Amino acid sequence: MRHLLSTKNLSRDEAILLLDIAEDMSDTQLREVKKLPTLRGKTVVNLFFEDSTRTRVSFEAAAKRLSADVINFSAKGSSVSKGESLKDTAQTLAAIGADGVIIRHAASGAPQRLAESRWIDAGILNAGDGTHEHPTQALLDAFTMRRRIHGDASRGKDLDGISVAIVGDITHSRVARSNLWLLRTLGAHVTFVAPATLIPFGAAEWPATISYDLDQTLSEGRPDVVMLLRIQAERMDAAFFPNEREYSRWWGLDDERFAAMRSDSIVMHPGPMNRGLEISSTAADSAQSTVLEQVTNGVSVRMAALYMLLAGEREGA
User: Which residues form the domain of 258?
Assistant: First the structure.
């Protein structure tokens, strides 16, 4: 694998291979010594133009557990804040010998631009670009679903026939988009649930069911997985719903809705959570919730992604 920029172009076999490698990486984390020598001598750069806690720390832990040298680059306090371009930043990283670049950027398409340029000859991994995609988040979500559903027999399995309801700010969510493409590839059925103002233009052409009624989706669809999304107020330049109380009343997973769900269903959230807005504390802290599992599984999945990108000769390098 040369780069990991999107889940849309992953085949079923590639997706399952990544998830299976993540299972192997997860097994190594049970050992007393968790480090592997796989990427010894490689340099991995965390190039983050947006604030992040879970994703950046998860990638740093993944790279270090594979014995890579890690450089953390934040736009704040760097030459970027002085007006340095992406091209100049990339050429600087190339000059220090970066083998892999994990990039999070506010502009959709920035990782693609970096991968297609001749500024740097490194494996590029998209850690979230604007409202476009966040492929490793979708992979860790699928990994978590597969483990919950198939248990110890999850290796080699897909998610065929599983129903997933993704609820909330679809318009601004790169997580929703990456999950849609990956879950469809793995055989799951996806329903987007949101107010009409938070369903993106053109979503009717996507391979997903669109719903504006969470109660109806939960009662009639009886989904296997309910994934709540954070309201991304920082990306909103207009009033997409009257107020937080109104949003929570109609589209939040409150205690009453959670109690009406199937007892074997799964509750997911990519974090950070707005408790009391899109999800209640009862739902978030329940045995059905996988919120902390997703964080734990993120390290294994990102180890697998880095392994695929940087171990041995990269295709096309």
Answer: 135-291
In a domain, 3, yes or no: no
What CATH number does residue 79 fall under? Answer: 3.40.50.1370
> Which residue, chain included where needed, has tokens 């950027």?
105
Tens-binned pLDDT, residue by residue, of the chain (317 aa): 899 999 999 999 999 999 999 999 999 888 888 899 999 999 999 999 988 888 999 999 999 999 999 999 877 655 665 568 899 999 999 999 999 999 999 999 999 999 999 899 999 999 999 999 999 999 999 999 999 999 999 999 999 999 999 999 999 999 999 999 999 999 999 999 999 999 998 999 999 999 999 999 999 999 999 999 998 766 555 567 767 888 889 999 999 999 999 999 999 999 889 999 999 999 999 999 999 999 999 999 999 999 999 986 544 44
| Binding site members for L-aspartate | 82, 174, 230
- Copy the structure tokens of residue 26: 């997860």
Feature table: binding site for carbamoyl phosphate? 54-55, 104, 134, 137, 271-272
Those residues whose C-beta lies under 8 Å from the C-beta of residue 13, and which sit 6 or more positions away, are none
- Answer whether 20's CB lies under 8 Å from 151's CB: no
- pTM of this structure: 0.94
- Residues at the binding site are 54-55, 82, 104, 134, 137, 174, 230, 271-272
Number of domain units in the chain:
2
Q: Are 107 and 151 within one domain?
A: no
Residues 103 and 125 in one domain: yes
By the 8 A CB rule, do 190 and 7 touch? no
* One-letter amino acid for residue 225 of the chain: V
